[in-house]
């Protein structure tokens, strides 16, 4: 299926992610696709399949935060029909800043994907350990 | 907005599946217990609003990233 994208013009897509409940702020956006942005695989675009101008920059949080760790609640495991931890793919939505070195990752609400069935959800963690703006280029003090 | 006054231990029923109980209250803090089906998501609203606002910011212009990428590709 061909879709219009924000940063990649028109592309052919065969695999879509289903966000059954949309994402906070965009409750009607339920279909997205992942498009690599950088050659090293560090940055990926989460492109809306329905709204060409809507796209987010994602990165695996473990690229920048090796200690990042959290528990998924049973309700999320059920909602995404997750059967194994190995099927879980985690991304953080980045808020790109100018200069780029000030870019932050939202560690409080990771995007969780079930790689087996392509169901996805932005999960708001109830822990107070993580916030919405973690600079990706600063080492955590402690 | 429907406003009800409840005492500690009293409960409010919302629809068929949701119940809210005042567990304790002290000074200006209230402990609220919520019974709801697993598929109903419950958040502190200011946290939910923060995530929404962060998503909206994140969906905007990323020219700084594109600049950064074209710089590293030249190296």
Explain this structure.
The complex is a heterodimer of chains A (142) and B (75). With 142 residues, chain A is mostly beta strands. Chain A is 4% helix and 31% strand. Chain A has one helix at residues 74-79, and strands at residues 2-4, 10-12, 17-18, 31-36, 44-48, 55-59, 88-95, 104-105, 111-114, 119-122, 134-135. In chain A, strand 4 and strand 5 (44-48) form a beta hairpin. The relative contact order of chain A is 0.18. Chain B has helices spanning 45-58, 63-74, and strands at 11-14, 18-26, 29-35. Chain B has a three-stranded antiparallel β-sheet, with no helix packed on it. The termini of chain B are far apart. Chain A binds chain B through residues 7, 21, 23-26, 37-39, 43, 54-57, 74-75, 78-79, 93-100, 103, 106, 108-109, 122, 124, 132-133, and chain B through 38-39, 41, 43, 47-48, 50-59, 61-69, 73.
Q: How are the SSEs placed, and which strands pair?
A:
The complex is a heterodimer of chains A (142) and B (75).
Chain A: E1 2-4, E2 10-12, E3 17-18, E4 31-36, E5 44-48, E6 55-59, H1 74-79, E7 88-95, E8 104-105, E9 111-114, E10 119-122, E11 134-135
Antiparallel strand pairs in A: 1-2, 3-4, 4-5, 5-6, 6-7, 7-8, 7-9, 8-11, 9-10
Chain B: E1 11-14, E2 18-26, E3 29-35, H1 45-58, H2 63-74
Antiparallel strand pairs in B: 1-2, 2-3
């Amino acid at each position: 299926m061909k879709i219009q994208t924000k940063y990649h013009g028109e592309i052919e897509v065969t695999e879509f992610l289903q966000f059954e409940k949309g994402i906070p702020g965009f409750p009607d956006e339920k279909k997205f696709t992942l498009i690599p942005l950088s050659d090293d695989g560090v940055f990926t675009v989460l492109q809306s399949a329905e709204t060409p101008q809507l796209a987010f920059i994602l990165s695996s949080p473990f690229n920048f935060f090796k200690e990042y760790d959290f528990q998924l609640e049973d309700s999320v495991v059920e909602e995404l029909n997750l059967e194994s931890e190995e099927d879980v793919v985690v991304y953080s939505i980045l808020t790109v800043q100018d200069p780029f070195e000030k870019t932050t990752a939202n560690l409080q609400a990771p995007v969780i994907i079930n790689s087996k069935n392509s169901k996805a959800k932005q999960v708001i963690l109830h822990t107070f350990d993580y916030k919405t703006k973690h600079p990706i280029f600063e080492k955590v003090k402690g | 907005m429907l406003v009800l006054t409840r005492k500690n231990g009293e409960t409010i029923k919302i629809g068929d599946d949701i119940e809210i109980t005042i567990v304790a209250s002290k000074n200006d803090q209230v402990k609220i217990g919520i019974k709801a089906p697993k598929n109903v998501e419950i958040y502190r609203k200011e946290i939910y609003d923060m995530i929404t606002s962060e998503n909206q910011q994140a969906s905007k212009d990323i020219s700084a990233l594109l600049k950064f990428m074209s710089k590293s590709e030249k190296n």
